[in-house]
């Protein structure tokens, strides 16, 4: 296996542009610019690969052919309605099929490079459109690129693919697509569906008949900070991954759990997000010989958060993590100020938060985070042969 890291990138990925909309491609543009200025993309063993669009054969492994037809037709029909398109969440835009297929193709290229041993790790920061359903758009997502990539891995012979989603929103589309497939473990940590879109991702969603234990959901209450989030992550994710024994790890690394993100209610920091990426890489190294495919996802603090979070992701995937105290380069700060005037441009790669946490124990008076941990462990751990009350599991 090559020790290289593939970063799938082309400026054409910025064409996934819904206009005056929270999912603004400037966040991806500024991420790549920041990573480049910090030298992350010039590290030894880093290869930038331009993607090709996913063709219909790939897309229909996940999506209904009639839905693909609708995505193609919608921009040419001003009266078009249906399939989740033409809403405020999912407005129709020119080149919608082409740009969506390119993002899917980019994540597939990342997955293929890792599975075939051409790279140990691969990243597509423009990907992570995890809400798209087989027959409709949802939650700013037209084609579900993580699911398309996972389907491609299965076609290439993978028997155990683990998907971990750390976006603030439940990874509902990926779960839905593989809910009955025991070869795919979907794990999602997110704000409770009682408070946030998409309204799914309860602890008792554990996989369909024949695939019991293949879905793991950790719904967290509003207001959880780094210490609670890390406590929940480490109480659930390592155990279920070790029980599943994945051959490859696919992750959706949405940055919208940050405390200033405008669309959600968790209180994470860039430092806590960085710690999560380090933990995910360590699990890939431990369990699947380092095979890790990482995508972006949500994140709507376009200047203040997403570029720093995903530059940390790129750094962790390509070698040594960036020191949190590192200043953001002056050239990048000038670019960010030009691209989004009036936004606060962060001077350093840190929020000055220590994401240390106390490991979970099944004793004492539980708080809201511990109740969420206990609910998930009780629901799914026995299905995986684990003891929900043993902190060693």
TrEMBL record:
It comes from the Bacteria. InterPro entries: AcuC (IPR003085), HDACs (IPR000286), His_deacetylse_dom (IPR023801), His_deacetylse_dom_sf (IPR037138), Ureohydrolase_dom_sf (IPR023696). The keyword Lipid biosynthesis does not apply. Residues 21-315 form the Histone deacetylase domain. The keyword Transcription does not apply. Pathway: Ketone degradation; acetoin degradation. Residues 343-368 are annotated as: Disordered. Keywords: Acetoin catabolism. Belongs to the histone deacetylase family. This is Acetoin utilization protein AcuC. It comes from Micromonospora rubida.
């Amino acid at each position: 296996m090559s020790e290289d890291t593939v970063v799938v990138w082309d400026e054409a990925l910025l064409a996934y542009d819904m206009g005056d909309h929270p999912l603004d491609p400037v966040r991806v543009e500024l991420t790549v610019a920041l990573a480049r200025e910090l030298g992350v993309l010039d590290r030894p063993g880093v290869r930038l690969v331009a993607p090709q669009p996913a063709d219909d054969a790939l897309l229909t492994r996940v999506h209904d052919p009639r839905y693909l037809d609708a995505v193609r037709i919608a921009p040419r029909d001003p009266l078009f309605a249906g399939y989740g398109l033409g809403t405020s969440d999912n407005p129709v835009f020119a080149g919608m099929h082409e740009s969506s297929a390119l993002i899917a193709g980019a994540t597939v290229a990342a997955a293929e490079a890792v599975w075939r041993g051409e790279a140990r790790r691969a990243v597509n920061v423009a990907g992570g459109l995890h809400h798209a359903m087989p027959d409709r758009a949802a939650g700013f997502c037209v084609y579900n690129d993580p699911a398309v990539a996972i389907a491609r891995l299965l076609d290439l012979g993978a028997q155990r693919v683990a998907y971990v989603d750390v976006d603030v929103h439940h990874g509902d589309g990926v779960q839905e697509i593989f809910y009955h497939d025991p070869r795919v473990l979907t794990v999602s940590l997110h704000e409770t569906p009682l408070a946030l879109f998409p309204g799914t991702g309860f602890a008792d969603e554990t996989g369909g008949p024949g695939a019991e234990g293949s879905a793991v959901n950790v719904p967290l209450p509003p207001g959880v900070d780094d210490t609670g989030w890390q406590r929940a992550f480490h109480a659930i994710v390592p155990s279920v991954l070790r029980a599943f024994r994945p051959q490859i790890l696919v992750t959706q690394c949405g940055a919208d759990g940050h405390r200033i993100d405008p669309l959600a209610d968790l209180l994470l920091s860039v430092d806590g997000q960085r710690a999560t990426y380090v933990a995910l890489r360590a699990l890939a190294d431990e369990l699947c010989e380092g095979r890790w495919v990482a995508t972006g996802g949500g994140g709507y603090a376009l200047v203040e958060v997403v570029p720093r979070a995903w530059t940390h992701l790129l750094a962790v995937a390509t070698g040594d993590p960036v020191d949190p105290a590192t200043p953001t380069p002056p050239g990048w700060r000038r670019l960010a100020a030009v691209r989004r005037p009036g936004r606060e441009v962060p001077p350093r790669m840190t929020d000055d938060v220590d994401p240390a946490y106390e490991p979970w124990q099944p004793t004492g008076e539980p708080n809201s985070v511990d109740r969420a941990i206990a609910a998930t462990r009780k629901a799914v751990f026995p299905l995986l042969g684990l003891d929900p009350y043993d902190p060693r599991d």
